[in-house]
Known about the structure:
Chain B: Keywords: Membrane, Transmembrane, Transmembrane helix. The complex is a heterotrimer. Chain A is 49% helix and 11% strand. By secondary structure, chain A is α+β, with helices and mostly antiparallel strands.
Amino acid sequence: MQQLSQSLAENLSALDARFGKSADYYAKKIVLYGCPGCIVMFDGMASLDSLWELLLDAAGRQSASVRLTGTQAYAHILHGSAFPAESAPVQDLPQLVARLTAGMAVLLLEGCSSGIVFSVQGLKFRSVEEPSGEGNLRGSREGFTDLLRVNLSLLRRLVRTDTLVQEAAQAHTCCNTEYALCYCKDRADPAMVRRVRAILQSARPELLLDSSYFVPWLLPGKARLFTPVHYTERPAVAAAKLCEGKLVILVNGSPSALVLPALFSEQFECLDDYASTAAFSSFLRVLKYFSFYLTVFLPGVFVCVAVYLPELLPPQLLYKIEAAEKATPLPLFAEMLLVILILEIIREAGLRMPQSLGHSVSLVSALIIGDAAIATGLMSTPVIFVASITAIAVFVTPGLYEPATLLRIGTVLLAGLAGPVGLAAAFFGFLLSIVSTEALGVPYLAPHPFPQQPLSEDGVLRRNYQQLSRHGFNIWQKRERGKRQT
Amino acid sequence: MKQKAGYFTPAALTLSVVTAALADGIPQGVPVRRALWLGAVSTVCLCILSALAAAALLNKAPSFAVRLALTAGLFMELAHIIVQAQGLCAAEFSSMALLGFLPLLLWAGWGIRPASWNASARVLWWFVAVGGVICLLGLAGQLHWYRLFTPAQPTGTNWSVPVYAEYFAGALLCSARSVRRTVWLPVWGFAVQAAALLGGALLFGSGTYPRLELLRAWSSGSFSRMDALLLLLWLLCAVYRAAMLCAAIRLLWQQPEAEVQP
Amino acid sequence: MRNAKSYKLLLFLLLTGWCLLFLRCESTEKSMVRAVYLAQSEQGYQAGLLYQAPQAAADAADVTAALQFVQAEGQTMERALDAAEQALPQTASYRLCDYLLLSKAEEPLLTEYEQLVLRRGCGRTAARLLCAEGEIDRLAAQAALPDALMAQLKTAAPTAPRLYEHTEQGLLPILRWNAEEVSLQEGGVLHTVVGNTLLSPEQAEVYRLLTEQDGTRQLWLEGERIGIRRCTVSVTLQKAQVLVRLDCQRAAHSPLPTQAQQQQLAAQCTALLQSCWQQGVDVLHLQARAALRDGSGASFDPTKNACPQLRTDVHFMLY
């Protein structure tokens, strides 16, 4: 354990070596009662208000008896006083604008071409609340806010070691939006960190309103169904991913953190997975996998089985389906497609509409789908039932909503028009899109246990957390294993 | 170039062989014991030939003639499996959609790298295993040992062993570490065909029925038949095999050619 | 660059057009045939189809199964079946056709139907065989009879032999109907290639016991009804005799049989085995057992050899 030295310079040098790269590290040398000192802190975590009050009082008593030129005052305040000014003054306007837009105060003096910057941010921002999209029973309820510095402080509060690095930079956009690349330097692959840093620096998005805007640069190339990145609004989840060696990208103005590389199996895990017993969380994971495959394939399989493989359905159900198709004007797959599209419209409307109208629209849509459509003979009960189940099941894994919806529609179309061959084609499309997806050399399906290791320690089923903790998990192990397989 | 090409795993080749063997079966009309003995002997011979081919081609750049011969074999397999799959779709599902998707299938097979096919094979093997278990569960109650000893036995003597190009292309399609496992591919092919032969004999006795009748006899509990689902599983594997053979042909020609000795 | 793009677009359109050429949409609107009825008369063949025909209804709560029956005649079996299919409201689908009803289970009829199934797919070789007694016109005329017939078919099916077993011996259940109801008769028809024999209810139950069929067997022994399930038959071939051992488990709520009842059951088994042997039926497959043990089953051919001496022992498990 390294003891503190009596030399201020040595102590400062040691701290600088550890935290020098991090943007939220603050160190200000001051003189108090004639003794040189230095204030060190993390921005956003310590309050500068009380510091300002203390030093302002001292400065006011001193300035009454002293008459200095602009340059002298600049020098006195910047180098001879204990004001909490930024150590790097601004020399030009772009710098001045950048500091002002960051919420800092800049002191400009007559006769002085440099400005002194004071970090007295008092920005209004959304408070730290529980995110609406990621529900959990146990664990932290905090969520990221829209302010980057606050988000960085939330991460720093959780990862209280010297290995967390949070590099802030400004993106080359018309808004000069700030972003941060976070990683644990003892776990993340240095080569991948350099690569991602270079990509982010060279990216030229028109706007950067969310971390997902970086994805086309991070994962260039062909169109893909599955994107091997994960989004989270919970600092606890982001911290856990950091400890697995992953990279987290935060963008100022958005609470959504981008985590890469991500694995397919992680979409079926959640924050309180490890807070409950191994048996129950394994049961939930199995349920989630089942729900995902249900939501993707059930409508298509239903259409295909009803027409081409009727012997798989109980006869009591089969004649109801047959009667329903007789009564409706559309063929079975077209009806299924129509119901799926209507449910998507309702979902999208529910997401965008003013909350005060939410209940009315829900009631109307329930009446339209549930009653009027059947009564007029436009839709039938079995189809609505199947489509509704899949529409609900998809929200068990919200991270896979987009690919699941597209796959579902594609599967219905293929199964309806091409029968079992179409179903086989849809299955292959799904399989090939998922096995050929990778990010930073880590296959999306690794360490997916199903084809390789059905009884993986932390796959579909998971072991006791004590056993899991014996072997640390690092995402870059999967990259090496994946490389060995080819 | 060998490093960049990527190779198939023995599991992928085995799945391809098993798919073909499921469709080809063993010629009927031959007594069961004779068929099994002849099949076992043929399998041993094929394993030896496969091992010799692997030893000859291992870690060596194949000549143009070898490459051409293997390509011809793989192409014939490709045509054969497509014809079989299309026949199945037309007969069982009244569908010509496979012809419609054929260009897409061939293009996907040509364009997608072997690693993706290897990963797909791992998933499909689970489907094959589940399908096998379902098949057994539905047929177990109808298989009776005494049908092997019925007085009337078939007296056919015609015998032909299906030979697949994968038996001899293992050294070129798989990495050097896993070539040894490809020598046992004929065993897998024979195992599948022997199982089908035995199943047919235990179910139908001396009667000669088309191979598909073995699946059509499936019944268990409230499900009266599941042959269409089992055939759909085979269709999945057949589509996989067709695409994989395209990728295999491409892999053959991506390998560096042997230098021609003056 | 522009040419490459236009070629790509053209290729994409061609590919899409090619795909669409072969795609089509099927529907579930077919007449699902559940059972086939066949009878042969002097004039030709009589064929009947039991099929499902639900009424159109978007709300599943309003739908009924609505099984119906059509019949037709023809010079040949194929013509008769074809004429019956013409009478169906929609295209026939035989994917759920699991039963074959026969007025007389004759071998030529079965062979001909089997060939038709293999050629045309109008059924399946694993269809259950049952004997039918009743006027076929009633099935077409009475609305409730087809549903009742279907229910009885499902009840009788587990013990019925399959079509592909028609060259072996098999006990066919008998369904009988009149104007009001359909009933499953006790007893059965023992079918062989040579001919058929009507078995009494006791004989039929003993036969099912000896052939280890699933289900609970009800037998009257010493004036008491005994339920037997899970019977295991063990056969030992000795030089002078054949030892048959039945290890049975009694059904729930059935009393444990006494020694006398067990002996009566053993006697019934022996009597049935001997009577079947005399008709050329090897119920216990002694020929196959001998072939398995000795390589040849010639000494146990029921058509050539006398019935071996049989000794039957019946044992009941306590629980």
